[in-house]
Hints:
The protein has 344 residues and is α/β, with parallel strands linked by helices. It has twelve helices and ten strands.
Amino acid sequence: MAKVLVTGVSGFIGCHVSQHLLSLGFKVTGTVRSAAKAEQVRASLAALLQPAQRENLSFAIVEDIAVEGAFDSAVKDGGFEFVVHTASPATYAIQDPQRDLIDPAVNGTTGVLKSVLKHGQSVKRIVVTSSMAAIRNTPTANPDGLSELDWNNAAIKAFNEMGAGTPAGIAYSASKTLAEKAAWAFLEQNKCAFDLVTINPPFVYGPPIHPCSAPENLNASVKLIWDMYIGAIKEVNPTLAAGCVDVRDVARAHALALSTPEAGGQRFITSSGPYTQTLARQVLQKRFPGRSYATGETAAVPVPELNAKSKRVLGMGEYIGLEESIVDTVNACIDRFGDVKSAL
Ligand code: NDP
């Protein structure tokens, strides 16, 4: 079976992508920042894999994806057929937008491409985990909603104008837009033997399976759901109106992007439907009743995120809905960290 290099295997999405690929029989080499992280990932995945699948998991150390040549040794002599690049900072807890978000996102993405161009002769395809943050655009290019024709150029413009003072959410969107644009530009500017696919998810929820010692250390998107469940969010964000998708569908999309020849050279929105904190609260009230949740309402209306291309080209089929995704997120966190009373 084919060998895949998965960057950021210790992350929420990277771990699910790796587990899914291993369950399909791929051989996965995951990049991690340290040997200790590798052991944590191995332990997290052990119970979810058959013995033969466990043997197909190995690791390569990449301490900092932003450093020039960071992926060279991971790619060299790996004999990979595919690379999946999920590693990128997905956090709003930053001090310096350029250093903490833009540089690792852009240099990390171009760094993978450069290393494969130099050392990865066997690589046929690179799949990059981009984001709806790279797409969100008004007015939309397609009147029915956000499509793969859209680019979040507004985030780049805002970052260029505000620099170090850019709010973290906008800087994150700029980092994802700049990184994805850099990847497509790289393919245009270089004679590559591989092609590129991007997967563009909105907010990703679902059961975390990656190493995480405490709820405070959860990845940003799952923490949003857990914080609503435990009452750490007191009022819903009135302007947060986007889409959502379950991490298991995101993993499936990455695998289908490897195995679908026609996917080459394309971006794919992977969204199950709208997301607001009002909608999330409705699910929590229905499925975890008798608890106090954030007050207020979302005033903004989500722009539809068109997933038709992911169904048509990748064969994604039905997506897991918001309710199942939120319930599974909360239950997985309770299983792992224990239940707590609402702080409200
Ligand atoms: P996580 O924070 O869980 O994972 C991020 C991964 O990237 C981790 O493995 C992390 O390593 C690694 N990483 C980040 N910066 C560096 C660095 N400088 N050097 C080495 N490794 C680094 O986030 P997610 O799994 O949620 O996100 C994964 C990808 O999906 C990102 O590209 C993100 O932009 C994208 N995405 C996420 C969405 C979401 O809602 N979660 C939505 C849309 C896109 P370590 O564990 O050691 O910190």
